[in-house]
Amino acid sequence: MMKFRLRAWALAAATTLTPLASQAGEIEWLQWFAAEDTTGFYDKLVADFEAQHPDITVKLVTQPFGKVRESIVTDNAIGVGSDVLGLNMPWTKEFLDIGILEPLDDYLAREDNSFDTADLIEAPLGKIDGKTWMVPLNAFPFVMHVNMELVRKAGFDAPPSNWEEFAAQAKAISALQDGISGVGMPFSSQPPSNGPILTFLPLLYANGGRIMDGTTPNFDNPKVVETLQFLKDMNDAGSIAPGAASRTGGVDLEEFIAGRTGFLISPGVHSSSITSRNPDLDYTLVRVPSNGEKAYRVHGWELGISADSDNKEDAWTLVNYLLSPEVNAKAAVAANALPGNLAALDVVRKGADKTLIKQIEILEGDTPVEEMRQSPKAAGSWSVMTEELQAMLRGDKSPEEAAAAVQARWLELAQ
Question: Among 17, 130, 172, 341, which residue carries the largest CB count within 10 Å?
Fold first, then answer.
């Protein structure tokens, strides 16, 4: 458990709290993964780990995703908390500024690990301040979901593979009839205001663009402006579903499942919801249409170790176990995701449906990108992008002005 290091400013608030016991062989794993599983998989996983490592006891602490980040930050402030942490990549910079995470480079360099570091999904391993801070349990590549019935009704035989085809098909689908839209774009200011990272960033990466230069914001560059212009042109053509400024990712997913939208850019994991809830939908998924680069935004569930854990060796033993090809494959299947360890792909491939096979092809052949882990105050960064994209789509700002505004506001956030 974590060392008890109660800060003076938090003393009054913490008088009713008891620091976690620091016992050799006892570790705590805080995550939201089990909250999204109804089969008891993670309880069985912990039992299997403890059977293989009888000298280590794991306390599985499960919270909803929306609470985990807050719990990690609050626990760190008052000196209590967990040893192994379920992480979301966009939290990285904030957690490093606070000093929450233990660097993992020495652990990854060990020769007796159950995995080869070169087989792990690359994006979470990217060094910040010269060090590696997390490893991937699984991965969700962002893809484009396609309603093939609407594509054919609009006069096309195949989904779009590039921006020109995407723009033409989305416009034609929107013209089919009232209530049908080419593509949904969720740019609501309602928290978490994450529409741009769901839709804009995947298109930007497929355009060969980036929003960061290391840990420095770099939003006002030509590739960003070009991608913003593409979105503006799509909106001006009537291709984007009406009311984008009030639509959330959940609304767009529901509209696609209902068959009222031609295309949806979102994590590939949504394919299971789509096929299970509307099995009659003529559905497929493809890589996000490219404008020069085969790259995808990668999202997933990551693992880290608390810098204040008293049992880092036991914590790493659990992480090492979770990354072994056999266990990692089981965890991926349980989450209907792809494995963080690519050596487990062959196991996952067996029995996979056609949509998961297509995601595997993207994972194996394209470049994974995740920049929000390096952005200043990730949630605040999302809101800034959302507000400026809204202004652009309303016609209040040009793409160049919107990009410059995001850049200026991000630099303020970084201070």
Answer: 341
**What is the residue-level pLDDT of the chain in tens, covering all 415 positions?**
544 333 333 333 333 333 443 456 899 999 999 998 889 999 999 999 999 999 999 999 999 988 999 999 999 999 888 999 999 988 898 899 999 999 999 999 999 999 999 999 988 888 888 999 999 999 989 999 999 999 999 999 999 999 999 999 999 999 999 899 999 999 999 887 889 999 999 999 999 999 998 778 999 999 999 999 999 999 999 999 999 999 999 999 999 999 999 999 999 989 988 998 999 999 999 999 999 999 999 889 999 999 999 999 999 999 999 999 999 999 999 888 899 999 999 999 987 888 989 999 998 889 988 888 877 677 788 899 999 999 999 999 999 999 999 999 999 988 7
User: Would you tell me which CATH number, out of the four given (3.40.50.10140, 3.40.50.10420, 3.40.190.10, 3.40.50.1970), belongs to the domain 141-297+372-414?
Assistant: 3.40.190.10
In the three-class reduction of DSSP (H, G, I as helix; E, B as strand; rest coil), residue 144 is classed as strand
Q: How far is 169 from 395, CA to CA, in rounded Å? A: 24
Q: Are 127 and 92 in contact (CB under 8 A)?
A: no
The fold adopted by the segment(s) 25-139+300-362 is D-Maltodextrin-Binding Protein; domain 2 (3.40.190)
Same fold, 25-139+300-362 and 141-297+372-414: yes
